[in-house]
Amino acid sequence: MSVFTRRPVLRWALPGAALVVALGGGAAVSALSASADATLPPRTPEQLLVDIQQAQLDAGSGTVVESADLGLPTLPGLGGGGSASSDLSSLVSGSHQLRVWFSGPDKARVALLGSVGESDVIRNGSDVWVWSSVKNKAQHSTLSADARTHAAPGTGPTPLPTTPQQAAQQVLKALDATTVVSTADTVTVANRAAYDLVLRPKTADTLVGSVHIAIDGQRHVPLQVQVYARGAAKPGFEIGFRSVSFARPDDGVFAFSPPKGVTVTEASPTGPGGTGPSAPDKPKYALVGTGWTTVVAVRPPASEGAPKAGTGAPQALLNSLPTVSGPWGSGKLVSGKLFSALLTDDGRVLIGAVSPQRLTQAAADPAAALK
Q1: Would you tell me which of 43, 180, 282, 349 could form a disulfide with 47, CB atoms 3.0–4.6 Å apart?
Q2: Is 168 helix (H, G, I), strand (E, B) or coil?
Q3: What percent of the chain has pLDDT over 70?
């Protein structure tokens, strides 16, 4: 189990799940074409969609800036200065700088740079390390053969995407007729000219107003992703390169050895071939609705359970959330600019890029019971 999916309050990974739902909307291409910038030839939305899905990028590195203003309550230890700024869970709030490196399908490193330290997720073949310089701790795990084959490079225990590529992949997962896709004026990201692909939901039942994907004019890879709440002038979530290089990093970047004095924890091998959690320990989940109004319902394993009222700063915050009830039962409601989340008293978590009213309606759906 990831160290960032444990309690309290599921490490506040809820906004990340909401973003996945929000970015999973479909698309219907409009007839607009990209502006005829002097440095880029015109491209239609259809052409850009093909470009971004066929782009091949085997290696690269860069500095990524991530910013999240999701309308969360003030969370102790998240998004603040000091040591919290280098904690991977802090990505759900505030602005952050990351360094990323990747080489081939099974070598990747993401480093979150804080004011007094850093946190790294490193994958080198079957080895995965999670290291915090502030906490002076590292966790090592080994991917099984099957997990190594299918795992996405760069995937780490973070509640939000850590590269523009990851965010764009979530956008493009399910393109259908629930979204209008167009283009805006070309933009400059990391000193590179890029097309601006714009996705707008047709339905008014989602909190998402639009998603902008900046696509490199030469490499056709995503350089920046911005997600706007409905009616907002500034993005509620954005992630983009400040600088980028497409040269292959040295293999030494991915060779991690714990510094002297670091406490190392050895995790169980992950994947079907490993000895990690068995099927009964995996969370149950269901999808209610389609497109931009999809709600994800999850029932965590019995060993983990849902967040409960208790003591401590995070629990005090949980206790202060509004209580809602209906035919589905009762629970605590979290509302943000781009998502709503419901933590039910019977142990479920429901989340979507929808209004609280639509979320509670989904909670009453038989599929969301997860029995």
Answers
A1: 43
A2: helix
A3: 69
